[in-house]
Write a structure and sequence with these properties.
Elements: E1 10-14, E2 17-23, H1 29-40, H2 46-55, E3 60-66, E4 72-84, H3 86-93, E5 116-124, H4 128-146, E6 153-155, H5 160-168, E7 172-173, E8 186-188
Parallel strand pairs: 5-6
Antiparallel strand pairs: 1-2, 2-3, 3-4, 4-5, 6-8, 7-8
Length: about 190
């Protein structure tokens, strides 16, 4: 199907492959959730995803493989970025909060400037072009979200692949205390 681009869409071309990244509309959440589940297993319940989308429409982005003509073929990746208010940011800074504890009141609404950002996940299938396009789109959307301000970014990797990706993106532990995987908050220096 050919559709008009979303005003916040991002288009990237690798060779003859066209990738389009957009915030996921509420009506497409079931399909994107199914795609994410096919890669990582169980994820956030659909009702929670819908509530987040009602609160902030830009928290979840899908990367789709398309054609030069504007036709979409399939999902290539997705990522969730939660823009946080002051209270949640302070709790993350001292490793006192996890992503599963983020509630709607912690997430800023609309285009409100965040105090920090929590990376919930970055997923793509094993295709290297899809992975590269997803990481490229993630970096583009993060840059647009912070709008040149210095904003700390947090994440909590739950898999070895997630930890490898977080380290590749410049995230470092918030505290120099040995923790196991999924027990440590990682912070990306403010960009």
């Amino acid at each position: 199907m050919s559709v008009a681009p979303h005003p916040r869409s991002y288009r990237k071309v690798f060779r003859d492959l066209v990738y389009v990244t957009e915030p996921v509309p509420r009506r497409h959440l079931p399909d994107v959730r199914e795609f994410i589940v096919s890669i990582v297993g169980e994820v956030t319940p659909l009702e929670t995803m819908q509530a987040l989308s009602d609160h902030n429409q830009s928290w979840l982005h899908a990367v789709r493989l398309g054609e030069q003509s504007g036709e979409y073929r399939e999902y290539a990746g997705a990522f969730s970025i939660l823009p946080l208010g002051r209270e949640a940011s302070q709790r993350f800074a001292c490793n006192a909060m996890t992503g599963s504890q983020i509630a709607l009141e912690h997430v800023v609404q609309g285009d409100e400037a965040p105090s920090s950002i929590y990376l919930g996940s970055i997923v793509s299938n094993k295709n290297l072009f899809n992975r590269a396009a997803t990481l490229d789109a993630f970096n583009h959307v993060m840059g647009r979200m912070v709008q040149g301000r210095r904003v700390p970014m947090y994440t909590r990797p739950v898999s070895e692949d997630g930890l490898r990706t977080a380290l590749k993106l410049g995230y470092q532990p918030t505290q120099n205390v040995p923790h196991g995987l999924s027990e440590m908050i990682y912070c990306r220096p403010a960009i």
